């Protein structure tokens, strides 16, 4: 029986793009439905994700799965035979889950907060973002490779938001958190990630992300 895999996403969403990246790394064919965000959510999106009403949603044989981190684990569980995303060892898997959640809960939240604030509030958010990035800098320094080792893994997939979207946010809103002087290992990692042959196909151009943010991110 042929796989029935559908993705409801949005080109400018790092959370949506990470799902597509995982499927492409696994070599899984899928049907893609582009949502007209931020204002025109389709009836199907609202049907399949009635709680959060947002992308991404993975539909597998008619059954919906929401939330990008949950979807990534589902993809790895279902298609075990091709390209492992999470490590095999339970402890390493737990660490990967920890750092992935850390990126979303600490780094992304702080950077978006900085974009939406001014003055002292912005400086405080930038400080929070840098402190979170310092923890990642120390972690990636241990391997001097990718978070997944020699190959793109779970944390690297989630971390594409750092490599692909944070530079766009910095340019759009006129502040910097990720510099080569402060984060040489993360910058090196970021270059490796964005130049990966499959990641390069998935990440939208920085100019397009900046243009979208300027038009739609109204704080």
From TrEMBL:
Enzyme Commission no: 2.5.1.18
Origin: domain of life: Eukaryota
GST N-terminal domain residues: 3-83
Chain coiled-coil ranges: 119-146
Tagged with keyword Transmembrane: no
Catalytically driven reaction(s): RX + glutathione = an S-substituted glutathione + a halide anion + H(+)
Any one annotated GO CC term: cytoplasm
GO biological process, one term: glutathione metabolic process
A GO MF term: glutathione transferase activity
Domain spans labelled GST C-terminal: 89-213
Entries under InterPro entries matching the protein: Glutathione-S-Trfase_C-like (IPR010987), Glutathione-S-Trfase_C_sf (IPR036282), Glutathione_S-Trfase (IPR040079), Glutathione_S-Trfase_N (IPR004045), GST_C (IPR004046), GST_C_Tau (IPR045074), Omega/Tau-like (IPR045073), Thioredoxin-like_sf (IPR036249)
Pfam families given in the database record: GST_C, GST_N
Swiss-Prot/TrEMBL keywords: Coiled coil, Transferase
Cross-referenced PANTHER family: GLUTATHIONE S-TRANSFERASE U8, GLUTATHIONE S-TRANSFERASE, GST, SUPERFAMILY, GST DOMAIN CONTAINING
Family: Belongs to the GST superfamily.
Name of the protein in question: glutathione transferase
């Amino acid at each position: 029986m042929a796989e029935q895999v559908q993705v409801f996403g949005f080109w400018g969403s790092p959370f949506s793009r990470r799902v597509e990246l995982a499927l492409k790394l696994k070599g899984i064919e899928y049907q893609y439905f582009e949502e007209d965000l931020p204002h025109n959510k389709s009836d199907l999106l609202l049907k399949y994700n009635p709680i959060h009403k947002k992308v991404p949603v993975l539909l597998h044989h008619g059954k919906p799965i929401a939330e990008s981190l949950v979807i990534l684990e589902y993809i790895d569980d279902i298609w075990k035979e091709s390209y492992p995303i999470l490590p095999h060892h339970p402890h390493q898997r737990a660490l990967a889950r920890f750092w992935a959640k850390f990126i979303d809960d600490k780094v992304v939240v702080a950077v978006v907060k900085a974009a939406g604030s001014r003055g002292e509030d912005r400086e405080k958010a930038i400080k929070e973002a840098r402190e979170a990035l310092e923890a990642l800098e120390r972690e990636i320094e241990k391997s001097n490779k990718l978070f997944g080792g020699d190959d793109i893994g779970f944390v690297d997939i989630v971390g594409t938001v750092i490599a692909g979207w944070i530079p766009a946010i910095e340019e759009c809103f006129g502040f910097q958190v990720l510099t080569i002087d402060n984060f040489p290992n993360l910058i090196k990692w970021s270059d490796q990630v964005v130049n990966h042959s499959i990641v390069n196909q998935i990440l939208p151009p920085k100019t397009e992300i900046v243009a979208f943010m300027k038009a739609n991110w109204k704080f």
